[in-house]
Amino acid sequence: MTHSFLLIGQSNMAGRGALSSAEPLDNMGGRLKVLRNGRWQQMYRPLNPDRPFSGTCLAESFAAAYAQGHPGVDVGIIPCADGGTSLDQWQEGGLLFDNAVNCAKLARRTSHLAGILWHQGESDCGENQHPLYLEKITKIMQALRRELDADAVPLVVGGLGDFLKDMIQMPQLVNYPYVNEALIKFAEITPNTAFASAKGLTSNPDNLHFNHASLQEFGLRYYAAFKALEDSSRLPDQTGKTDDAPRTAMELL
User: Fold this and answer.
1) CA–CA distances in Å: residue 195 to residues 55, 104, 119, 127, 249
2) What is the pLDDT, as a whole number, of residue 165?
3) Residue 184's CATH number
4) Measuring CA to CA, which residue among 39, 42, 36 is closest to residue 80?
5) Which residues neighbour 77 within 8 Å (Cβ) at sequence distance 6 or greater?
6) pLDDT tens digits, one per residue of 205-235
7) Tally of domains within the chain
8) Mean per-residue pLDDT for 89-112?
């Protein structure tokens, strides 16, 4: 049995960790897989090759942690992230949205969709963009879950890195805290959704993309957020029955 995860967002989800400095990828005896042309292949790098300079990805350590915590299943990644993309490009009916839906549906023919991982926001840090972030991401994720019949599927969204303030070539990135606030609020008010913090993580020399070491740590933080959602859905109620109702991030605090 393969448990699959849909990977969506922009470049920091696709991954820009330096391949040259990364340790060899451990496929855990072939248990880590990636969807290529509708088939599950053994995981290899770059996992999400959206650009010629794609690199290591947070989904690598996430998948390994999930495999360790779920013996007996393979872990499959559905790579659909695309660098430089905005929320407007991810809206329902757009090419990115439809591609993610189609890939997830195809993957579901040979796997169980266990989660959705999202990292995006750098392209929406502009003065006219960040005030609309919460409204836009809410609509996108509601539509995505509706199209995939995935209301109960855990969703983890990740924060933007503090190093963005040092990217002087893109001054709008100083507004990244507002996008983080929107992501945290979204996780708090949306059932079965959690936020993974990027606090303290570091970047490549470009001050735009997480470096390899931080991506590996970020993947573990995504898994910790996912596991909190997963564990909360199994909490027994006062009658001793398992409560499978979706929980908000606020209810997990």
Assistant:
1) 23, 22, 10, 23, 8
2) 97
3) 3.40.50.1110
4) 36
5) 4, 5, 7, 32, 33, 34, 35, 43, 47, 48, 59, 63
6) 999 999 999 999 999 999 999 999 999 876 5
7) 1
8) 98
